[in-house]
Amino acid sequence: RVFAVGKKGGDRQREVWDGSRITQAALPRPRPPLLANPAALTELVASLDRKLFVSGRDASVFFDQLALPAALRPAMGRPCFAVHELLKQSLGDELGFTLSELEPFMVAGGTLTAAATITPISTVWPMGFGWSSFIAQSYMVGCVREAGFSDGAFLTDEGSLVADLDSTISIATDDVLSFVRASPHELAAMTEPPLAGLDRVFEKRGLIQNPAKVFDLAGSATCLGVDLKGGTSLCPRPVRLQQLVCATADLLIAKECSPMRLAGLLGTLHWNDLLARPLLSCFHAVYGWVRQEPERVSRAVSGSVLSELALNVSLMAFWSVDLTRPWLPLVAASDASPAFGYGFCLARSSPDAVRDGARHAALRPHHFRLRSRGGHGRVKARAGPSMELPVSSGDFRVVFSIRAKLKAHSGEMEARGALMGIKRILRSRGSHRHRALFLVDAQSPLGALQKGRSSAPTLRRVVSQAAAASLAGDLKIRWGYLPSESNPADAPSRGKCMKARRKIVRQRGRQTLASHAEVRLRRLLAREGLLSRSSDLSSEWSGRSTAGQ
Description:
Blueprint: E1 2-6, E2 13-17, H1 20-25, H2 38-41, E3 51-58, E4 81-82, H3 88-91, H4 99-102, E5 117-118, H5 130-146, E6 154-155, E7 167-172, E8 175-182, H6 184-188, H7 196-205, E9 215-218, E10 221-223, E11 226-229, E12 233-236, H8 238-254, E13 256-257, H9 259-273, H10 285-289, E14 299-300, H11 303-314, E15 321-322, E16 327-336, E17 341-348, H12 351-361, E18 367-370, E19 386-389, E20 397-403, H13 410-425, E21 434-440, H14 443-451, H15 457-472, E22 475-481, H16 490-493, H17 498-527, H18 537-548
Parallel strand pairs: 6-7, 16-21, 18-19, 21-22
Antiparallel strand pairs: 1-2, 3-8, 3-9, 4-5, 7-8, 10-11, 11-12, 12-15, 13-14, 16-17, 17-20
Helix pairs in contact: 8-11, 13-14, 13-15
C-alpha cells in the first residue's frame, strides 16, 4: 500500500510505500555506513577563540534520483487500477492522458485498452523498502569520498572521535554537513568553501541539490534536527521543544493514547536524548507498552509510563551541550570482586593522551594495555585492536579500596564500583564540566554504561544512578575496556593493598600527633624556663631526670 506523510513548512506531502513484505523477503540489509545522528555531534570540540562553523548541502528528493535496477522493478509494485482512471475522459484535458501517451511507459509492451488493469512499478529506490536507506547513504558516502574527505573525518553514530578536530563531516542520507573549527583570521584566509569539492562531484554525477538548504560557514544553523548556537553549543530547536512539552502535557491530562502515537513521541524524545545519552535511563516500562497490539487502538496509559515520560521531559535542560568542555587530565580505572569489594585508581595524563584513548575506546571491540618497560609478558589474548596507554600501573594512585557490605551479581558490582568512582571524581568541583576516560574490565557493564541504560534487572538501577551522577556533574564519560590482568584497580578490589596502606596511615598519624604534642610541651617548658628553645626535648629531659636522681 501507499500512504502520504505531510512535509514540514507547507501543504506538501511525501509518498511512502509500505515495502515491509518485500523487505522481509529480501536478504537482511547491512547497517548504513558512516551514518550520523545528534550523538555524533556531541563529539565536536570548540573553544571561545576557535569556534565551529558549519556548511551544508542537501540532495533534492534524493530517493527519486537513485535509479532502481531493472531486475528489481517488478517487485516494487503499487496498488493496481484501471486505465480509464488516467484518461482525459476521467481527469479532464489538462490532467488526463491518451492511450498513445501511456503506451511508452508499459514494461511488457503490447496494446493498451481503457478497460485494462495495470500495476504501477517504481523505477527508483522507494522509501519504505529496507535497502533504500542503505543504498542512499552508501551513494552519498561515495560522493563525499570522491570530494576528498577521508573516513577518519566522518562523525558517525558509533560515537567515533575524529583525528583532526579542525575539519569534520557528517552524512545523514541526503544531508551533508561540514564542520570547521577556525579563528576569525583562519576563516578569512580560506580560498573556497569547505564543500566546494562536493559541489563539483554533484555536478559531475548529475545530482540535483536543494538550493534552499545550501549554506557555507555559518556559526549558527540547524544540524540533524538540533541547533548549533554560536559555534560553541548544541540544543534542540525551540519549535520542537514546544511541541514536545505540549504533547507530553496533553498525554498527562488525557492518560490515554495508542501505542503507535506514543511510539512517535518516544522516538522524538530519543532523538533529543542522544545529545545526553544518560537521559535514556529514564525509560523502561514504556518500551513494553508501545509494543502492544493492535497498535492503532487507543487505550489507558499506565502510571509508570507517564512518570517516565514526564521525568524525561522535565530534564530537558540537559539537552543543551557545551562543546567547549575540555578533557579531564586523568585516567580512571575501577574494579569489583565478590571476594572483597571495590577498588578505584586514578592516574594523571595529558588531555591529548586521554582523548587518544577515548578515540580507541570507540572501536568495537577493543582493549587497552598499560605501559610496561619490560613488556607485557604472558597476557590473555583479547578481541579487537589493542592500545598501550602512556601510563604504567605505578602511575595509578589507589583512591579507595572498600569492603562490600552486600555481595551481589558480579556485573552489578562492577557497575557499582564505576558509580562509586564517578562520585569520587565529582567530589572535586574542578572535575565538573569535563570529558573523561573511564576504564573497566567487564564488557556487560561497559556496554550498558556507554549506552546510557540497561534493561537487565541487575544493572538497570545502578546504571541509572551512574547516569544521574554524570548528568549532575556535566561529565561526559567515554568507557573503555581494560583487561583484569592490566587493571590497577584489580588488587584494591581484592583487598590486597589495604593492610599496608592502613599501616602507613596509622604510622603517619602517630607521628603527626607526637610532633604536635612535642611542640606544645616545648613551648610550655620554655615559658617556665625549664627548657631552652634551641635544645632537644628528649636530651634535655633525660639530663634533668639524671640530675634529679
